[in-house]
Amino acid sequence: MLEQRYRWKNKQLREHVSIIDGKIAPTIVLVNAVYLNQVFEEWMKANIWIYKDRIIYVGDKMPDMQEGCEIIDCSGQYLVPGYIEPHAHPAQLYNPETLAMHAAQYGTTTLINDNMTLFTLLEKRQAFALLKELRHLPYSMFWWARLDSQTELRNEEEVFSHANVKSWLEHDGVLQAGELTGWPRLLDGDDMMLHWMQEAKRMRKKIEGHFPGSSEKTLAKLMLLGADCDHEAMTGEEVIRRLGQGYHVSLRHSSIRPDLPGILDYLQDYGLKSYDKCFFNTDGSSPGFYKEGFTDSLIKMAIDKGVPLIDAYNMASLNIARYYNMEYLHGNIATGRVANINFLHEKDEPTPHSVLSKGQWVKREGEACGVKGSSINWEEYGLSPLELDWDLTDDDLQYSMPFGINMENSVITKPYSIHIDISREVLDMNHDECYFTFLRRDGQSRINTLLKGFARNLHGFASSFTNSGDIILIGKSRQDMKIAFNRMKEIGGGIVIAEKGEILFEMPLVLQGVMSKANLPELIEQESRMKEILVEKGYPFEDPMYSLLFFTSTHLPYIRVTQAGLYEVMNKSILFPTIMR
Q1: Integer Rg of the chain from CA
Q2: Region 84-381: CATH code
Q3: Peptide bond into 381 cis (omega under 30)
C-alpha cells in the first residue's frame, strides 16, 4: 500500500533533483517542443526533460549531463498531455490490460476503472494484489469503489459488507465511490450507503452518480447527500440542469448512448461560456466502438462542433485531473508530472502519431511499440477459466411461466403475456419469441421464461457474460441451447452459438467467464462476427453485448432476471422467485 501512497520514493525524488543539478542525465529530452500550456492557455515552445516516468523540467534550458540521453527534435509537432478516461468499465469482454493497451494507441494513457467485476468475483486480497500488478504496466490506472451490486444478489449483504466496501474506499488506488446505480435505495433511506458516501467524503474522494432522467429536485437531493458528478445526461438540456445544481458533468459518447454531437450542438447554441466542469467519457463501450479511436475521437468531435480548442483538450485531461485532485500528477505537461505525452501532427487533429506513457514509448510514428502481449498471470489472481461443477439437464429447460420478457431496444425490457405453445422441443422460426433460461453460476437455481424481440431463428445461444456473472441461454431449440451451454462450459466460459448440432460461433472468455485474453483488434473481429450472426438470426438492435450484460441489471427498467428471481424494477419486487435445481 505504501508503494501506491508514495508515487516516488525518497531516493527517486533525490535523483530527480540531481538531474537539475547536472549530476544525472535525463532519459529523454524533447527539444523545440511546441506544447499546450494550460496555465497560460496557449501553445508554448520549450525543451522537456524526462527521467524514466516523470517530467523533470519544462523550459528553455538543456541538461548539463546528457550522456545516454535520447534527444528528440519535436519541430513541426504539437504536444498535449495524455488523455484520461474517467469512466471505464474494464471488463466488457476485454480486460483491464487489453483495454489500456488499446486506449494508449489513441493517446488515452490514464483510465479510471469500475471495480465491480473484481469486487464481486475475486477475494479482496486477490483483487488488491491484481491492482498492484497492474501498476507495473506502462499505463496509469485508478479505480472506483462500488456501493451496490446493480442487480439482486442472494448474498448481497455478504459481498457488499461494510468491511469490504470500506477496504476499497481506503485503497490508495481508488479515487471515487460509485457509480450510484442504487440511488433510489439511497433516497428511500439506505443509511449504510449514505454512511459509505460520508466515508468517501471524509477521505476526500469523489462520488459518481448514475441519475438518468432525474428531475431538478432529485438532482438537488442527491447533491445534498454527497454526489459530485453524473455521466447520465443524454441531452444538452440535462447537462445544463446538472451544471445548475453544482455537478461536474461527464459528457458521454458510447456504443449505446452516442449522444455527444447533439449535446455539443445544444451547448454551443446555449452559449455555454465555460467548459471547466465538463469532461468526456465513453462509458465502457463494446469493443467495436473502439475500432477507430478512443477519447481522441471525442475531442475531435468537440473541435468540429466549435468548442474552443484548448477547452476540448482540457475536457480530456486537465479538467478531469483537477476534479480528482491529481493535477500534480496528470492532465498537463509541466515539471513533476507523470510523463504521459501525445505527439500530434496538427493542433486540431487529436489522434497522436506517437505516445509516451509513463515515459515509455507505446506508439511511435504510427506504430505500436513496447508491450505487445499480456504480461499478467491472471490465474494467480483468481481470474482462471470458468469451472462449472454441474451439468445442464432436460429438467432445466422446462417452460411454464405465463409471461415473458419483451425487448424494447438493446437494453430496455418489459413484461408481456405468452400466447404460444411453449411445450414444444423447437419453437417456430416465423416469430421473434425464444426460450430464455437464467442459471446461477453455482448451479443452485434457475428461471425459465420466453424472450421476445431478441431473434427469430436463433437455435441455441449460451453466455456466461452478464452483469451478475451468471449464465443465460436463449434459443428456439432446447437441444441446441444445451449444446451451446456444454461448449461454453468446455471452453472455460464465453459466448457460444449452436445450430442443428453444430457450433456456429464461440468467443472464449477465459477470465472467469466474463473477460477475454485476446487483444482488442482480435476481440473486435470476434464481436463483429457474433453481431453479424445474430443479425442474420433476427437481432434487430445495435448492441448485443449490452443486451447480454443488462439482462441481469436492475438499474434499468422494467423487468430483469436476477439471482433472487424475475425482478420488477419500478416496484422493486420479485414477480417470480428462482426455482431451486
Answers
A1: 25
A2: 3.20.20.140
A3: no
